[in-house]
Amino acid sequence: MQKGISRKASKPLLKLPREELKLIIEKKRNRISKFNEFIYRHIDTLKNIKNDYCFVLANEEGCLISVKYRPGMIEREFEYKEFFVPGVFFAEESIGVNSISIAGILKRPIHIYPGFHYLTKLKNWYEYCIPAVNKGKMAGYIAVVSFGQPISKALEGFTDLLAVNLFYEYFATGNENTTDLSTSQQLTERQCAILRMIAQGLSDEQIAQELNLSLATVKYHNQIIFKKLNASSRVDAVVKAIMLNKITFYDLYSKYA
C-alpha cells in the first residue's frame, strides 16, 4: 500500500467538492483562459503526433483546474476519464506517485515513466511536469501526459513554452529588471534568424554553420538578443520573442523559417 492506496484503485481518491472547485476556478479564471487560448492557437503545430496525450493545468495544491486533450481524442472512449476531471488532486495520496506530486517536492521539471507509477491502471502513462516556483512559493503546475508512447521533443518543447508563457507574469512580479515588452528594442533580421534557429533547438555551432558565421559572431548575437529581450535562458528568449511577434510559434517547426 502507498499512503493508503491499493494498486488496483481505478479512480482518484481525492476530489474537491463542486462548490469549492467553483471558487478556485473563479479565482484562477485568467490563468485558465491563457492556458486554453495558448493551446487553441498553437495546437496545430503538434498535428503530426498521432498518439493520445493531454495537457493539464493544476493549482498550487496539485488540483486540476483545466485539461486539454489531443484534438479528436475526447470524442472517443477514454479509459482514464475519471483521472482528468477538474477538481481531481494529482497528489500521492490520491493517485500514487505522479509528475505533479514529485515536481512539487523537487521544485523542478520532472519526467515520470510508466514503471514509476504505483497504480496498475497508470502503468502506460508518460508524464512531464513543470512547476512554477518563485522564491520558494508554488504558483501551479503545467504537465503533459502521453498514453502508451514516450513524450516527444515536440510535446516537451510545447509544454516548456506553455509554462513560461502562462506563468511569465508571476515570475516577473517584483523583478525590477523585467523588460516592458511593449517597449523592447527591435531585433535585426540576422538576430531574428538566429532566434528562430534557437527556437528549433540548434546549437551555436550548428547556427554558425548554417549561416556561414563564426562561432564568436553567433555568441555575440546571442548576448545582444538576450539583452534586448531581458531573457535569462533560451526558452525565455523564444517565449518573449513570440509575445513580441518577432517570431511566430510556427517558426519552431518550420526548418529555419
From TrEMBL:
It comes from Acetivibrio straminisolvens JCM 21531. Coiled coil: none annotated. Residues 180-245 form the HTH luxR-type domain. InterPro entries: GAF-like_dom_sf (IPR029016), Sig_transdc_resp-reg_C-effctor (IPR016032), Tscrpt_reg_LuxR_C (IPR000792), WH-like_DNA-bd_sf (IPR036388). CDD domains: LuxR_C_like. The keyword DNA damage does not apply. The keyword Disulfide bond does not apply. It comes from the Bacteria. Pfam families: GerE (PF00196). GO terms for biological process: regulation of DNA-templated transcription. This is Regulatory protein. Keywords: DNA-binding, Transcription, Transcription regulation.
